[in-house]
Amino acid sequence: MNIKMLKHFLALAESLHFGRASEECHISISALSRNIRQLEEELGVTLFHRDNRTVSLTQEGRRFVEYARDTSTQWNLIRHELTDHSKMLKGEISLYGSVTASYSFLYDLLSQFRNAHPGIEIKLRTGDPEHAVAHILDGKEDITIAAKPAKMNRNLAFKPIAISPLLFIGPLEQQLPNVPSEAPTNPDDWAKIPMILSESGVSRDHVDEWFRQQNITPRIYAQVTGNEAIVSMVSLGFGIGVVPKIVLDNSPLVDRIKVLAVQPELEPYDIGLFALQRNLKNPMVEAFWNLIG
Fold first, then answer.
1. pTM for this entry
2. Domain coordinates in residue numbering, the chain
3. CATH class assigned to 84-162+269-293
4. CA–CA gap between residue 20 and residue 214 (Å, rounded)
5. pLDDT, tens digit, 9 for 90 and up, residues 211-249
């Protein structure tokens, strides 16, 4: 077993696709498959279920993922400590955030970080904000930017960047009889309106709590992943939605929706960096973490 073999295993474990994993590792599919078989032979267990269409981790494979990630991280750290006698940090860190986060916060942070630490390679992945914290807990990324949940896992470290209000939004002009362009004034009216909400995550928790406090049973028209999709559906007149203000600030559809004057207002949430507590000992993660004062 060697560190390259572990990296090949991790690439396949994350993508569950031999083609994508082989491209990431810059080797052929046959070479990747051969390395995985060799790893399984050395361990004496099957790490992946494979058939002609799908690849999935076995129970043993899921357990081995944590070992492989920790070992890969420790290898990078000790190699840096032993071989690099300069003051320049070298290595790789992985970041995760939504498209909105990339526009709003990560651009400036990445610019500062690259100027301060040109020897560190940055891998940035974008996706749904609801999955950001899970990516950290699963060890898939070193740092992510996301909204702070009401209950924090004790293994997580959080550093706040900004506070974002949550806003009710409607279409600029009424297009359907049951989708008004003004805020409803009583629970009965609210209950008739189709709502377009996040499938899960902090914003959904906040809006669910708001409806409970107002004794409203909402009519859920659509539950979607990604705040940008909510703005799109609202702009087309399908219903009323709830999105963070930072999403609207960066949306090309902002001129096609209206922010509704709803009282009481939704509770805002904190946005910031997340990392595993133990990963803050990694000098590259620490360097990015310290960009925020």
1. 0.69
2. 1-83, 84-162+269-293, 166-267
3. alpha beta
4. 48
5. 999 999 999 999 988 888 999 999 999 999 999 998 888
